[in-house]
Amino acid sequence: MIAIIGTGPSAIACARALISRGVKPVFIDVGNQLESEISNQVAEVNKQDPQEWVNGVQNVWTVNNLESRPLFDKKKFGSDFSYRGSEDFLRLDDSRVHLKGSFALGGLSNVWGGAILPYLDEDIADWPISYGDLRPHYESILQWLPLANHRGDDLFSRFFPISHPSSSVISLSKQMRALESSFSRCQDRLASVGIFWGRSRLAVIHSQNDRECQLCNLCLTGCPSDLIYSTRQSLESMVRSGEATYLSGVQVRRIQRKNESIEIHGINLQDMKPVCLKARKVFLGAGALHTTKIVLNSLNAFNQTVTLKDSAYFLIPFLNRKKGDKMEELRSNSLSQFFLEIRNTGVSKNGAHLQVYGASEPLHQEVRRFLPTMPLMKSLGKHLVRRLSVLQGFLHSRDSASLSLSLRGDGERNRLCISKIQNTNSVAIIRRLQWLLLRNSNALGGITLMPFTYYALPGRGFHWGGTFPMRHHPGPLETDILGQFSQLNGLHVIDASIFPSIPSMPIAYSIMANAHRIGSDTALDLNA
Ligand SMILES: Cc1cc2nc3c(=O)[nH]c(=O)nc-3n(C[C@H](O)[C@H](O)[C@H](O)COP(=O)(O)OP(=O)(O)OC[C@H]3O[C@@H](n4cnc5c(N)ncnc54)[C@H](O)[C@@H]3O)c2cc1C
Ligand code: SF4
Description:
Elements: E1 2-5, H1 9-20, E2 26-28, H2 36-47, H3 53-64, H4 86-90, H5 131-141, H6 174-185, H7 187-192, E3 195-199, H8 231-240, E4 245-247, E5 250-258, E6 261-268, E7 273-279, E8 281-284, H9 288-298, E9 305-310, E10 313-320, E11 338-342, E12 352-357, H10 361-370, H11 375-387, E13 388-395, E14 402-410, E15 413-421, H12 425-439, H13 441-444, E16 446-448, E17 454-455, E18 464-465, E19 491-493, H14 508-527
The structure holds flavin-adenine dinucleotide and iron/sulfur cluster.
Residues 5-11, 28-30, 74, 101-104, 107-109, 111-116, 250-252, 285-287, 290, 294, 462, 495-496, 506-509, 511 line the site of flavin-adenine dinucleotide.
């Protein structure tokens, strides 16, 4: 058996590489899914006229008594199934961090924002592999990953230098069109201060067969038409076509070499009894956090410290000069609409990445929470949100706090102990970035509301990894460029836990490209 643990982006990309080289993998996964009642109700909503979707989805929440604050705690149709069980598995001992993995079929791609960008050489200068090594895999992935808004001819193609002939463009709201015209009018001025803008490259199915984005603005709470790509979609198609097999309900705890094979030890979640599965090769893509715990346990590396690198995450409210549509008339996609790449050495030599989100009901909800509950304020909130956008920002891990993790034996189960390694530069860099944006308000078409910046706890941006970095000459608790440990032959780690650092750009496309690279290189041996 060739086993892949997980069904998130790393696992699916690795599987695609193996399958295309004639290997049929078995996915081993916990496999939590959206509750069937909710999923049936959403299927009913999808049959309705898209004009009715908002009411339909709100009804699903009311019927199921669900709560949602998507700007801060993103769920799918109000359900937390994507994260369920992770806290109990990790048993972290510090509440001043926000770290959650996933046990879901499709992993965190159930709730992700679909934003994708490759890492370029300047971002991964400290890696033992280059953009040139990843490039064929970025390209391969675009053969099955949907991609919207990729126009190969804009200034931003420097940051996405991979062509894609069939990318369609999602229409912008009035508010976002006003920003776009400011950005394009002042493109040279912005570029001269190191601000590069482009439409957000999104893994969203758009205009395909009879499926098309309905601009219903529900993206942050869940797409009734399932247009935001999730690796669940790929898994279902691989299993349907017989290219792979899926074994769910197994929580993996430990991997061991035994003679010629590798043993995967875990718990069968149906009867809570131990299971042991034998494999020729194991690809571990349980998400960087869960993988860290499984590997430390497998190597008996108790009380040894590894460093989880994080990309600092923050939100800056942005007041647009021009007013957008009334909330009742808003027709837009509510995922990120623009990327801003900041390459200004006065801010940081490592660059920063911003995503622009326009008006949406979740944003309106936060504005209402913030304003006192008076009728006048209600109408002020409606006006305010027509001019409000949010800049979601990320820094490079070198400019961010990191976390040291160690596994402690604790009777029956083990616990991951955490301590935060501060980075005093982070806040200063975010402030310098805000001043840069403020100085260029005219060109940007609005001003940043600096005092209302939200500085998130470490981990909150979900761009983390690096506990077992890839090296040309790996030391203890480091991996080679195929994600292997010298002590555990036959195991390949394929998720972000093997990234030597975490650049500021979206992480999942690079997780996929790297996992695809490892799958491709290893498949040659498997077929030999
Ligand atoms: C709200 C949100 C928005 C995001 N937006 C973006 C974005 O726009 N762009 C971007 O690039 N990234 C985004 N991310 C991050 C992105 O989703 C993750 O980086 C990516 O999903 C990680 O992929 P993975 O395969 O490493 O792990 P995961 O997606 O975490 O998948 C882990 C898989 O392993 C399985 N598993 C875990 N532990 C075990 C175990 N012990 N036994 C068996 N199976 C196990 C799980 O069931 C799951 O299938 C976002 C994340 C969140 C939460
Ligand atoms: S706007 Fe978002 S939720 Fe609505 S159809 Fe388009 S992708 Fe789906």
